[in-house]
Amino acid sequence: MAGNDEIRATAQGTAPVPLSVLDLVTVGAGFTATDALRTSVKIAKLAENRGFNRYWVAEHHSMPGVASSSPAVILAHLAAHTERIRLGSGGVMLPNHAPLVIAEQFGTLEAMAPGRIDLGLGRAPGTDGATAAALRRTDRLNEGADDFPQQLAELTRFLDDDFPDGHPYARIHAVPGPVQATSPGGVQSPHRPPVWLLGSSGFSARLAGVLGLPFAFAHHFSAQNTVPALDLYRESFKPSAVLSSPYALIGVSALAADEESEARRQVLAAALNMVRLRTGRPGLVPTPEEAERYEFSPMEREFVDSWNSNVIHGTADEVRAGLDDLQKRTGADELMLTANAHTAEIRLRSYELVADAYGLPRA
C-alpha cells in the first residue's frame, strides 16, 4: 500500500509548498490533438527539469478543445518521455469505468513507471449528461455518483488484491498487480499507485478525510467552496496506513507572461472558451484576437469577470504573489497549476516564468 513518502513532497526553491501541473491537453483553434499531445510532452519535460512535483491529466469527454478523454493512454505516453516526475490522473472519473479496468490500467502504468504513478479519482462524469449516459450505458446517472464509496472500496481491493474469502471477486485479480507475487517465482512490486480523491464540493472532502486519503480540490472552477471543503477534509480526517495527517492540494488556474497585457489577452480567450462550454457550444480554444473581437452580452461579461477573478495571471512576480496569497488563505499542502492559453508557447513560457520566479532548480 502506498504511504506518506509517495504523497508528501518537499517544496523547491522559495515556493511555499510543492508545485505541480494539471494538464487538460487543450487544443487551440488552428491546431490538432496531435499538436496538443506534443505540447503535453514538452510541458511534462519542462516540469520535470524544473522541479515540479507531479503532472496530472484530467478526464474530459465530448469537448473539442480538451483532448484528455483517455488519461491512462496519455500517461503511458508521458511516462515514456520522462524519468522522475510523478504522473497521474486528476482525475479518472470512477463512475464512468469498471473498477477492475481502472485497477488494470493503473497497475500497467505502475509497471511502466514504478513508484511514479498517482491515481486521482472523481465522481463527476467530466462531461454533459447525454455523453455520460453514452459512457455508462445508462441514463440513471445519479446511481453512479451515489455508489461512489462502494466503487472506491471495490477498486481499492482490486489494487491490493485482498477481497475476503467467499467474496464473488475473491478469485479475480487485477494484473499487473499483487497476485503476481503469490505465483511460483513471483516477486512483489514495492509500489502500488496511491489513491487520491478529487472534488469540488464537500462530499469527496469528507470521504477522503474519513478514509485517511490525500485530497485534491478543484479551486480552479469552484473557488467559493475551497476553504469550506478543505476545512471539512481536515476536520473529518482519520489517520490511516496511507497518511498520518491530512494532505491537500488545490488545482489553480495560473498564467504568467512577460507582459501583463499579454496575460490578460490569453486569459480572456480562455474565458470565452468557458462561456461557450457553459452555454452548450463547446469548441476549440479561441485566439486572443477572436476574443478581443467578440461582443460579450452583459450576462456573458459578468461570467467572464467572475471566472477571471479566480485566475491568477499577470507577470511572473504578480503570479508568484497571487499563489503565495492563495496558499496562505487555504493552507494547501501543494499547488497544482493549470495554464490555459491558445498556444503551446504561451503555456510553456508560463511554467518557465513561475519556475524562475520561485528559483526552482534546473535538472
| Largest sheet report | 8 strands, parallel, barrel
Kindly report the spatial arrangement of strands forming the biggest sheet: 1-2-3-4-5-6-7-9
Tell me the helix content: 40-55%
* Uncertain parts: none
**Structural class of the helix and strand makeup?**
alpha/beta
- Termini Cα gap: 30 Å
SS field, number of helical segments: 14
Mean pLDDT across the residues is 93
Count all strands and give the number. 9
Radius of gyration: 20 Å
Multimeric status of the protein? single chain
Q: Element order, helices and strands?
A: EHEHEHEHHHHEHEHEHHHEHEH
How does the overall form come out from the CA principal axes? globular
| Strand content bin | 5-15%
Write up what this structure looks like.
It is built from 14 helices and nine strands. It has helices at 33-49, 71-81, 99-112, 129-136, 141-146, 148-160, 179-182, 202-211, 226-236, 260-278, 288-293, 298-308, 316-330, 344-357, and strands at 19-23, 54-57, 86-93, 117-122, 195-199, 215-217, 248-256, 312-314, 334-338. An eight-stranded parallel β-barrel has the order 1-2-3-4-5-6-7-9, surrounded by eight helices. α8 links the parallel β5 (195-199) and β6 (215-217). The two termini are 30 Å apart. The mean pLDDT is 93.
